[in-house]
Amino acid sequence: GELTSEEIIDGFIDRMNNVEADVKGFVSRLENSSGAEIKEIGDLRGIPIAVKDNMATLDFPTSCSSKLLEGYTTPYEGTAVKKLKEAGAVIAGKTNMDEFAMGSSTENSGFMTSRNPWNLDHLPGGSSGGSAAVVAAGEVPAALGSDTGGSIRQPAAFSGLVGLKPTYGSVSRYGLVAFASSLDQIGPLTRNVKDAALMLNILAGKDQMDSTSADVEHPDYLAEIEQDISGFRFGVPKGYLELELHPDVKARVEEAIERIKENGGEVVEVELPPADQALAIYYIIAPAEASSNLARFDGVRYGQRLGDGDIEEMYQKTRNEGFGSEVKRRIMLGTYALSAGYQDELYKKALKVRTLIRDQYKAVFEEVDFIITPTCPTPAFKMGEERDPLETYLTDIFTVPANITGSPAISLPAGFSEDGLPVGVQLIGSAFSEKRLLQAANSLE
Ligand code: GLN
């Protein structure tokens, strides 16, 4: 007979119980189906979905994997989470992440480091690394991540999953703890493109609670997903495959390009701004916005409060002991970029370059429907390897342009490296082209 929702949930919880000690993807989670709020409605009825720890939930704390917010529970629920529940999903738990979404590996989590289920000596990527790990390990069929500079797509690539960053404004950010508000988007990590389309159907839409959510008509992203791609034009950015790339990544991307041609797609070379340009301004704009957004974590309203002397001491102690070193680094970088005397040279200049990059992408999308690139220059990072912060920042080179331009982008599994680690390929589309982007992705799967 048919499985009941309780049996489905208990099956996934069994899986969590078996693998979580190794995978370490959840910072909080359901322990049994009797704790679950089951609604027998919707496309996701009885399906457990994991949520990154930076999205407001009533069922679990929202700590952004930061000591500063450890155990903090919001008095409200974010829109994306609410929509999942309205579609019948059960929130399975909150997933580990780099603190406040700053990082690429979960090593910056204030709590623990998650593992890559394909090879436990490797990392699942980040910052939505816990979300990627729990989907890749079969603990849930899908998870929500957030993507400010690649944090959905890079962990999806490292973990053999599909990761979709929707167009800026497609999905409400209400209830997402802001990192860099002009770049942040919520999106799904799933095992296949159809599940990503189903999740986008549920998540997308204008929300009164987020003035930056777009008032556009969203099509049914799952309908016509099997559309063949003859007539679709794909652009390979000139010089990108000559950048410093792991040879297996390069080989898998070249194979994906061949597959596009075999499937009837047209491939041409396109001229994009140098890849490191978007990266350079990302590491000004994102810290600048973060330094402002994180000013609220001062011991007054949210999470832990330390010190019992004057208010100055409270701010200092709360922030000094609550924030980890990467978060402090970003706050210092951002404060510097916004300070009088430097903001014209740094922040304001970065905004001008952002406009120029947007214009160049717009022009390229007159010629082609999609841009194809690697998702990340390498397969999953190894656990415990020394990487200096700048080295890690450089690995965001292929993902940040979609955030800088607001474009939708998807990472797809493209095969494996010689040592058996997943490799991802990225497709970027023009604003609100998710329907075709998902069709193109589906044809390559
Ligand atoms: N790795 C990038 C960073 O550290 C992206 C983070 C993100 O998308 N949240 O900023």
Mean pLDDT: 97
Instruction: Give the strand tally.
Output: 11
Q: Name the structural class.
A: alpha/beta
Bound molecules: glutamine
Characterize the biggest β-sheet.
11 strands, mixed
> Fraction of residues in helices?
25-40%
What amount of the residues lies in strands? 5-15%
Q: In DSSP terms, counting alpha (H) and pi (I) runs of 4 or more, how many helices? A: 13
Order of helices and strands: HEEHEHEHEEHEHEHHHHEHHEEH
Low-confidence runs = none
Count of the domains: 3
Q: Mind telling me the C-alpha Rg?
A: 21 Å
CATH class of the largest domain: Alpha Beta
Spatial order of the strands in the main sheet? Answer: 1-3-2-4-6-5-10-11-9-7-8
Per CATH, the superfamily of the largest domain is Amidase signature (AS) domain
Rounded to the nearest angstrom, the distance between the terminal CA atoms is 32 Å
What is the 3D form? globular
Give the CATH topology of the largest domain. Answer: Amidase signature (AS) enzymes
Catalytic activity: L-glutamyl-tRNA(Gln) + L-glutamine + ATP + H2O = L-glutaminyl-tRNA(Gln) + L-glutamate + ADP + phosphate + H(+)
Keywords: ATP-binding, Ligase, Nucleotide-binding, Protein biosynthesis
Pfam families: Amidase
Subunit structure: Heterotrimer of A, B and C subunits.
